[in-house]
Amino acid sequence: MRNRLALVAATSLALALAACSSDVKDGGDDPASGAAAPEGPWSFTDGSGEVVELDDAPTRIIAHSAEAAALMSYGIKPVGIYGDESVATDPNLQGLDLTGIEILGEEWGVIDVKLASTLSPDLIVADWWPAEKAHSGMEEGVKAESKKIADLAPVVGATQGGSILNLAEGYEELARSLGADVENSQGAEDKAAFEKAREEFSEVVEGKDLTALAVSPATDLLYAANPEYAPELLDFEKWGLDVVEPDAPDAGFPYWENLSWENADKYQPDVLLLDSRTFDEALKTAKSQPTWNSIRAAKAGQVVEWPAFWLHTYGHYATALGKLTADLSDLDDTIGD
Known about the structure:
The protein has 10 helices and 15 strands. It is α/β, with parallel strands linked by helices. The chain folds into 2 domains: 15-184, Nitrogenase molybdenum iron protein domain (Rossmann fold, 3-Layer(aba) Sandwich), CATH 3.40.50.1980; 190-329, Nitrogenase molybdenum iron protein domain (Rossmann fold).
């Protein structure tokens, strides 16, 4: 996670921070969840493989922003949220009612643990990143004080990698274990919309012969994404899109192959995918490089948004997939190699 976010900052893609916090700081006894917590012992298998067991189901949850959005789609409301950017710009939190939720951090690697401790949490919910062997907010590069959030309560989360559906299904399972009425939730409606969007995506890409390369431009390098570590790209491959797999990912951090701008044309796809969270700034950075147009897809304007590293809910996935399907539908599939 550290390098992915540092990359955004390095390319001037960091988003403006805005303060947003509630007036509720007292831990109290009221559960955060809108669901009725089940009685008796509770257990959940974390993405790391560890089984977390508690005497009672947790009700006071602190969650990383994306994971919070997933739980909230099933009616589970956390007492606190920490994120990697301002809640005003975090795509996971748009349109959600954050009233009564304490905002504990709006910058990667910075969590107000002292404030978090006043909430008396009994569970921390954060993705497990297998390449980094850490949960979101506890990776290498995070401030030592911020990592102490893990001392407040057990940490559980779904595993990043493989498929966005692993995340969506993982948090559906977690919500169910916490007492959510999953079948009658917003998440269930979103799941139906997602299934329809997936069918439409497959129909479009199977009718074409498109190749796609996901990239993130920086002033010094062009980063080519390795689908093995980008679950949404793996999904797109499974559903019919030919995603280019870089042949020389960085050995120390295999999420990317680091291309010099002189070597920007190493791969020639039909379409380039750019991070949707920072698309305008990323494209501006890319266009400032004289070799950007040596990539034929760039010269042809076949550059579309890539919902990179943030999707966790069926609802967000349905929306992002619908937009990508529309963007791909009219593209020329004879531009790349």
